[in-house]
Amino acid sequence: MSFRRLLALSIVFSIVAGTAGMATAAQVPVVVAEGPAAPVPNVDGTGLCVATKVWAAPASSLPQTADTFASGMNAFFAANPQSQTMAVHRAPFDLSNNLNDGRTMSYGDFVGVACSQTGQGGCPFVITDPTTAFGTRARGFLRVTAASVGHPIHFGVYVDDAMSLTVFDGAGKAHAALVRPPQLGVPTWRVTNAVTFSSPGLYPVEILSAQITEHAALEISTFEGTFTDFERAANQAPVVNLRSSGFTLLDSTDLFQSEEGSPSFPELERCQQCDRELAGKPGNGGCSAGSHCNAAALCSPCVTSMFCGPSCSPCEDGAKCSSVDGGFRCVAVPADAGTDGGPDAASPIDGGTNVRPDPERPDGSTVDVLAAPAGAGGCGCRQARGAVPSGGVFATIAVALGVFGRRCARPATFSARRCPRRSRR
Ligand SMILES: [Ca+2]
Ligand SMILES: [Ca+2]
Predict the structure, then answer these.
(1) pLDDT top residue among 190 and 337
(2) How much distance in Å is there from the Cα of 216 to the middle of ligand 1?
(3) Does domain 26-256 have CATH number 2.60.120.380?
C-alpha cells in the first residue's frame, strides 16, 4: 500500500473515529462513600510504584472499550509478570517520551515542570523510543486530607494513547474515576472527572496506560473548585489547557506505598506489585518473607499488629509488633505498661507520636523519626540516591520517614498538613 493511500486511510479513520469520539459517553462522577484503607499518615509519601511492560502483540489486540480496558491491561500485566520493570516514580505525575518530531503532543499541558533536566515534556517513560508499544501500571495510595472531603475533586488527564484511573475504598470496592480506552485515529486526549470522598485517609489507586506508537504522554492532575468536566481529543475545540485552568500535577508526596505511610523497601526507588486477589489477605501474598500484599496490591513490610514478622501473622492477646534484633515480631505487652501498651513500634501513624526506640542504641535511648536529618529533596527522577544507613529494617524506615517527613518544598494538592511555613528573610 502506498504511503499516500495509507495517509488517506488514516485521515478517513481519524474523521470517523473523531466523530465517534465526540459521541463517547462522558465519565460518570464518582462518590466514594466508604471510608479509606488507612488513616492519613503524619509523613509525606514517596510516590507510586510503576510497572512497565512491552506490548508485543498487535496493537489491535489492546482492550478497546471502557468496560474492558482496565481488566484487559491487568490481565496483560498478570501474564508472565517477570518481563516487566518496576520502580517508584518519585516526581510529579507527568510522564512523556519527549518526542518532538515537529509536533509536541508528548509534552502535554505541563511543560518544563517535572524532571525538566531530562526533557521539557516530563519525566521519561521507561521506554522512550517512539515505535515500541507498551503498558504501564502505577499503584499505591492517594492521600485525601480532611480539607478535600465532601466536595468534588476534579481529576484531569492528558494522555497519549489510553489510560484508566481506578480508586479503591477501604472495603476493596473499585471505582472507575477515569477511563479512556484507545481509539483508532485519535491518539491524544484530555479527560476530566469528579471524585468526591466522604472521609479523609489513604485510598488505593491504580493508573493503567497504553502507548501504541509515536507520541506518549500521561499527566494526572487535580483541581478543587468549580469546573465543567469534559472529554475531548486534545486538538478538538474548545481546547482547555488543564494547567492553565488551575490543575496541578499529582505529587509524589501525596502518594504512598503502604498503609503505614512508609516506603516498600529500604531502597526508595524499589517496589513490587503483587496479585490483587491477594491484597490485604493474611500471609505473604506472594511477597518475600517479612512483607505482604497490602491493600494497594504492593508488597510492603509486615510491621503492624495485623501483619507482623516474617510470616506476616496477626499478633494475638494484645501483643504488639515490635522491632527486635533488626527484625519484627509480636511482643507481649507487660501488664504494667499502661492501658494500651503504646503504639506498634513501626506504626508511627497508630500512636500519633514519632518517638521510637533507637535501634542503634540498645541502652533504651529513643529517636524522633521525624527529626532525623532531612535528605536531598527535589525531583528524584529515578536517579539512585545514596544508600540508606544500615541498622535494620526499623532504622531504615525511621530514616526514610524522617527524610520524607521534611519534604515540604512544594504544595501538595491533598495536603492540609504542611511543614511549618518558614519566615521569609
Ligand atoms: Ca508533560
Ligand atoms: Ca501514542
Answers:
(1) 190
(2) 10
(3) yes
